[in-house]
Amino acid sequence: MSTKLYASAAQALAGLCRDGMTVAAGGFGLCGVPLDLIVALRDSQARNLTVIGNNVGCDEHGMWLVLANGQIRKVILSYAGDNKILERAFMNQEIEIEFNPQGTLAERLRAGGAGIPAFFTRTGYGTLIAEGKEARQFANPDGSSDWYIMETGLTADVSLVKAWKADAAGNLVYRKTARNFNPMIAAAGRITIAEVEELVPVGEIDPDQVHTPGIFVDRIVVSTRQPKHIERPTTRPRTAGEPV
Amino acid sequence: MSTKLYASAAQALAGLCRDGMTVAAGGFGLCGVPLDLIVALRDSQARNLTVIGNNVGCDEHGMWLVLANGQIRKVILSYAGDNKILERAFMNQEIEIEFNPQGTLAERLRAGGAGIPAFFTRTGYGTLIAEGKEARQFANPDGSSDWYIMETGLTADVSLVKAWKADAAGNLVYRKTARNFNPMIAAAGRITIAEVEELVPVGEIDPDQVHTPGIFVDRIVVSTRQPKHIERPTTRPRTAGEPV
Amino acid sequence: MAWNREQMAERAAKELRDGYYVNLGIGIPTLVANLVPPGMTVTLQSENGLLGIGPFPYEGEMDPDLINAGKQTITDLPGSSYFSSADSFAMIRGGHIQLSILGGMEVAQNGDLANWMVPGKMIKGMGGAMDLVAGVPRVVVVMEHNDKSGAAKFRKACTLPLTGKGVVDLLITEIAVFDLDRKGLRAPLLVELAPGVGLDEVRTRTEAEFTLAPHLS
Amino acid sequence: MAWNREQMAERAAKELRDGYYVNLGIGIPTLVANLVPPGMTVTLQSENGLLGIGPFPYEGEMDPDLINAGKQTITDLPGSSYFSSADSFAMIRGGHIQLSILGGMEVAQNGDLANWMVPGKMIKGMGGAMDLVAGVPRVVVVMEHNDKSGAAKFRKACTLPLTGKGVVDLLITEIAVFDLDRKGLRAPLLVELAPGVGLDEVRTRTEAEFTLAPHLS
């Protein structure tokens, strides 16, 4: 009987990395990022990668490591942020960047995993994003009509996701806003690897409360990353007399 | 401060029903059907309805009542089953039936709620379902290509859904396979009414475990339907010595 | 001697592989659920929103909120998950279910399948059948070799409205098994005969053109 | 006397209605969160997957798994819900968020908005801005009336790459408020002047053509 459980991120990625492949990784900023798996991807030394994700890491964290190691040929993202390495590589024409509206990127990944090769969205109509894309009008229920552009589904050779809990069947539960792009990326991978904080016994996750069913998860590894890093710590002062 | 809570299904539907409107209702067979709301829809006597749902009720249950009352002009469904009244109305050309593959129907509703006017699917290509629909080829990752047809999003003037638990914010949790079409139909309604088994205090539903966020739910009513009916009771015999 | 229903299901069960996620249609395909080889993990999907179908419940333990796509009461298993119909068909359409075993009315030699409507009779609707054959990468059809009038159901071309075009990979009947090419680039291959069934019988009862697998020629 | 940032946010807060679901951009729009009138229920959405944004956490109570779209640590509230980015933008694209209040670099008199890139500078990416302006039925832009060089930011046509075409309903600056017609069928209406600001000043500092609301003419 096969198992989905792997002892380390390196072992979970073994045999999957090759030059020119497409990798999708979950996360929004530093939240919900499969950090161990991304380190293993860097260590694989696979090159000419196409990387799909909301962003490509923050300074010295996450996909930044793979970028800094010169392994990426193209990124498909929504927000590059303040990423000096990406900026330099882009200016030197060492890397191609495909910008997507965030919701379009999320939906393209959802479509890819769901067997939908293309869909129409109003997002980006009349902007740079629409250039080279088919545009057409669709009627609204009130009889008026709007312009939409066609966007295509995205899949990945390997998807790397981060979850809170998993069982050996591959069922995943995410925590708070660390969910973000992970569920769609899990479904959009031909092979999907989940880095999880806790492996729980099969039967412990309520079947009504599974976020990503095990069918989408091929390999599982327990994360070594605790405590988690915070990108922009923001707090409010306690006012006098407020309970601690 | 406004409330989403209504004392009865009739009150929850008050002011919303009009001739010619489109109503979507959740449920698969008799599982997860908003029965009280459908009775209230019948009692509204609104006519010339277009009804969207996986099926249109079973004998003497659910949307069958509205059908039997002659209120429906058109149904958009995936499975008519053994529904003598629907068969007669269809043969007498009193009603229009639009058949959809089940997954296409689910996705059309999901698209409607998500602001996607159209998408492509391989389902139904080369069949009767494809007639009159745009077909086109999209490339696969391996360089081959397949044919797909374009399907459009669906929305409803009023959506009726059935959930297990709700809070006053409108957050819904479904139970087991009673979830089925309800989440998409909740999002596809311009006005959405939820019939729920239990209203729980705000804060009791874990925010990570909400199936339908309250933003999609305008009105809530507690169901009077217990116990629930079973369409096809199926059991296995206990073998001798097996624990009861 | 032709295979009986149980034996047809046993033949279909040989298509299972460890780790597969499988959708079974009603009728003979349902019997495959009880024929998973020991030590093999196969997870069954119910397209109305469950991954991990368990056995039928005991009397007194039926749950109205837990049914299969045939609307029968069922159970779940440790490791099961529930999801919406949209998520269920995202799984199916997206090619995540490895195998679909379902019944058929007609199969054509190019892999076309008809199993949802007979013109002139009341249309019940296709339910999830069109999605399954379009989305699942491997489709096995289990059906009687001939209809009640004796006419061939494995044909040069389907006469009934199609469920899917170029979607069947394997056809199992009570007398033979055929390996089809979805793309229609080669003729179906006769790969197996039921015990005691001769090639002539298969030829007589089949309209489709087929060739013989090497071990049969 | 022109409005300050807090007063611009107060003006934007007048656009809130009981029961609204609202997305607030960074900068002045964020200040609106603290200005919800007593007795009014307004639910704030964070497009990275939260409905029901609470206040910033106290020192020592930050949760790395709970951030807003600006990546700041936040809190949730009783009745909050978390969801994926796809579900979040389904909400936005599907028109379920009633109001979006966001910043702008340029607004054109036909409702076009530019707020995501300046040619020649490094492109950071549009994040969720294009989805918000395309999907939310009411879009309020809060921005300075002129740029640092004094050039008008409310223009006949945008000069910067667009975030959305025909998407702005209301423009709030430190000196005036304009009601725009998304469809571009009528000129923008000047509906409000900051205290002590004269019509001549607005005319001088604005490139867009506008007409006066009845109570101002």
From TrEMBL, chains A, B:
Keywords for this protein: Transferase
SUPFAM superfamilies reported in the protein's UniProt record: NagB/RpiA/CoA transferase-like (SSF100950)
UniProt protein name: 3-oxoacid CoA-transferase subunit A
Cross-referenced Pfam families: CoA_trans
Domain of life: Bacteria
One GO MF term attached to the UniProt entry: CoA-transferase activity
Taxonomic lineage from the root: Bacteria, Pseudomonadati, Pseudomonadota, Gammaproteobacteria, Nevskiales
Record PROSITE patterns: COA_TRANSF_1
Recorded family membership: Belongs to the 3-oxoacid CoA-transferase subunit A family.
InterPro entries the record matches: 3-oxoacid_CoA-transf_A, CoA_trans_fam_I, CoA_transf_BS, NagB/RpiA_transferase-like
TrEMBL record, chains C, D:
Keyword line: Transferase
Secretion signal, residue range per the UniProt entry: none
PROSITE patterns: COA_TRANSF_2 (PS01274)
A molecular function GO annotation: CoA-transferase activity
Top-rank taxon, per record: Bacteria
The keyword Transferase is assigned to this record: yes
Coiled coil: none
Keyword Secreted: no
NCBIfam families assigned: pcaJ_scoB_fam
Entry-linked PANTHER family: KETOACID-COENZYME A TRANSFERASE (PTHR13707), SUCCINYL-COA:3-KETOACID COENZYME A TRANSFERASE SUBUNIT B-RELATED (PTHR13707:SF57)
Family: Belongs to the 3-oxoacid CoA-transferase subunit B family.
Name this polypeptide is given: 3-oxoacid CoA-transferase subunit B
